[in-house]
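User: Could you go from structure to sequence for me? I need the amino acid at each position, not a summary. Structure tokens:
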């Protein structure tokens, strides 16, 4: 399985299968499944070559997000942004109205729950991100300091985003609303989510010694600690049901499996 994505209407699960590296033959299939039964009867589509160089349509390193304009997104090549249109039942490369400002190297995608916006990270090591707006198909280059290493989570409409489990932004202007800072010596951030209305950020905190999930810190996205860029912490939610054995690599096994 190369990746998967759920349509914006939650009616179809798309799964890309094939070799991890297509090479030059581009062998692979995009399956349209019923998410309730996982039956493959709906439809299937050969994964095509979208560039003259022979680079194939892949589903990105973090899945294949769907936006509410009906597009299922992927990165078919290092300098190409592609998508599948389920209505037209065809693959295409993004051709505007905006120009893609730079190349994509192993990009990652994070879409809002309502499918109206999508953050695109150029690569794990490149400090360039893009924001796709489904309402008009435009791509902007927001000013987010540094590359995205761990991920992005957004409010339902994508208006508020937490980046790398720390910085919280207003995505209309990518203005920093504040940082969801974990107090020194109390653990480290292992993940985060934004409430549907964007008013709160929930940060999963892991124990620095055992790597087990210890608690969830809750922050107010509209209030700052006086004289700082730290968001006001509203409280904590204890995590009482923890993993008993995280395997040979506890940091990975407890937090990312």
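Assistant: Here is the amino acid at each position, in order:
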């Amino acid at each position: 399985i190369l990746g998967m994505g759920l349509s914006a209407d939650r009616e179809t699960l798309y799964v890309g299968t094939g070799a991890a590296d297509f090479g030059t033959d581009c062998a692979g299939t995009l399956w349209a499944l019923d998410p309730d039964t996982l039956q493959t009867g709906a439809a299937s589509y050969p994964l095509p070559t979208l560039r003259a160089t022979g680079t194939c349509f892949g589903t990105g390193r973090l899945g294949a997000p769907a936006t509410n304009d009906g597009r299922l997104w992927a990165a078919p090549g290092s300098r190409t942004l592609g998508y599948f249109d389920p209505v037209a039942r065809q693959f295409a490369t993004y051709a505007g109205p905006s120009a893609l400002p730079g190349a994509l190297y192993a990009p990652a995608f994070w879409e809002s729950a309502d499918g109206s916006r999508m953050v695109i990270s150029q690569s794990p090591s490149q400090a360039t991100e893009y924001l796709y707006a489904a309402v008009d198909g435009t791509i902007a280059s927001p000013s987010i300091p540094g590359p995205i290493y761990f991920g992005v989570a957004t409010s339902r409409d994508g208006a508020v985003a937490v980046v790398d489990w720390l910085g919280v932004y207003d995505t209309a202007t990518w203005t920093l609303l504040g940082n969801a800072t974990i107090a020194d010596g109390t653990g480290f951030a292992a993940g985060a989510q934004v409430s549907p209305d964007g008013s709160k950020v929930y940060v999963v905190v892991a124990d620095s010694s055992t790597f087990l999930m210890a608690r969830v810190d809750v922050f107010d996205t509209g209030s700052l600690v006086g004289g700082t860029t730290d968001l006001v912490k509203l409280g904590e939610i204890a995590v009482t049901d923890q993993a008993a054995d995280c395997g040979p690599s506890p940091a990975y096994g407890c937090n990312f499996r």
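One structural detail worth keeping in mind: Confidence is low (pLDDT under 50) at residues 21-25, 49-55.
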